[in-house]
Amino acid sequence: MIYTFLLSCLVAATSCNRDSYTPSQGEDIKKSGDVTIYTTTGSRSLDFGKRFVDFSSKFNMSPNTITLDPAKKFQTMDGFGAAITGSTCYNLMKMSKEDRTKFLTETFSDKDGMGMNYIRIAIGCSDFSLSEYTCWDKQGKENFGMQMEETQYIIPVLKEILAINPSVKIMGSPWTPPKWMKVNNLTDLKPFDSWTSGQLNPKYYQDYGWYFVQWIQAMKKEGINIYSITVQNEPLNRKNSASLYMSWQEQQAFVKQSLGPQLKAANLSTKIYAFDHNYNYDDIADQTDYPVKIYNDPAAAAFFAGAAYHNYGGDKAELIDIHNQRPDKELVFTETSIGEWNDGRNLEKRLMEDMREVAIGTVNNWSKGVIVWNLMLDTEKGPNREGGCQTCYGAVDINKANYKNITRNSHYYIVGHLSSVVKSGATRIGTSGYTAEGLVYTAFQNTDGTYAVVLLNDSGDSRKITLADGKNHFSYDVPAKAVVSYRWTY
């Protein structure tokens, strides 16, 4: 199993030989057991270490018992993963075929890896593409087509991932429409020849809806099914290197008049998610509750599965607020970044905060999935472009000198700790019992007859935690500053 070499790296992953781990003297590691456990500590003393424990035959007297309550059901889970950007694919394709297959297996295989199963890709370019482009840069329907970035990098990588895990779900998001569809504003309607900012000219609503349909169908011809789309990445952000301002009023009109009906006419079941931006709506007063305002038109609402969120402003409590207003609509978390600004390579700090705020935090606030930003960047934070993020790290960073040595950052672990035990179709369930400062957890019932729990211990002390499901119970010493994932058959 691949986890043998993931058990422990006492130094940074770039300098440790991951294949040379030997258990410390006297350490007894069980080869099997009733419960499978993965543990990562902020110090990397346990680096997605795999352990097994058995159910206890003793009467449970532990005051530190967390009891699962499967009768209390919340949302059904879609999955967890990262963005497969042009930059990510460029770095992956620079690796040797053997190393790339090994990494993608570790990441996406449900049997031999973390089982990540939800990824996000750009429709056209993103701010982490090799150039700025769309798939329809020249007017005339005959000019639509996949570009070099798709054909040489993104599609080949997606095919390799799907060969490893055919059940991976893919979300598509545009950063910009073709420039010829843009205007400076909706009053003057003057052509806006820029990748950055601008607004969608309403006279091109039907053309832009056609563009989405063509893109989905073109991917399908490559054997790549698009599970979901968002209408616009960060619609309130005018400043990204590739961007478009799209108010809730515009998004509602475009989907109601064009995108929704055209997907339906093409018999495409691809889910549409609204918004895809920050909890605080970038403090634009009339854009607050963006998705709810869209849903207030029943004809428009019928085309939307739900809404997507990022965490670059505001608080995850916004997810609860939106859920409470429209419990019939789904929520999914689609982007978060680490970088120089938030001490992105400090694993202990980021592992604790990202697990609490993003992984467990959004799921406990009704999110059906968690997708982080770039799966892989190089050690120079690239490839990146002017106008985009030049201070971002990837979920993993690959050494640009050899495209071989990989450092796994917090975002790789927070998604992997969910995807390794919580499978697509799982239902989040209730819990009761032990609580403590720095202890955050979430529980699930998988469709295959297993329970899953993901737990964060953000305290300075190890804690002996007992988990009980009404039939069985077991205990495990959770290290200080650690994340633990559990899975067992009930």
From TrEMBL:
Keywords: Glycosidase, Hydrolase, Signal. Residues 425-486 form the Glycosyl hydrolase family 30 beta sandwich domain. The keyword Hydrolase applies. Residues 78-420 form the Glycosyl hydrolase family 30 TIM-barrel domain. PANTHER family: GLUCOSYLCERAMIDASE, LYSOSOMAL ACID GLUCOSYLCERAMIDASE. This is Glucosylceramidase. GO terms for molecular function: glucosylceramidase activity. Belongs to the glycosyl hydrolase 30 family. It is an enzyme of class 3 (hydrolase). Its EC number is 3.2.1.45. It holds the Pfam family Glyco_hydro_30.
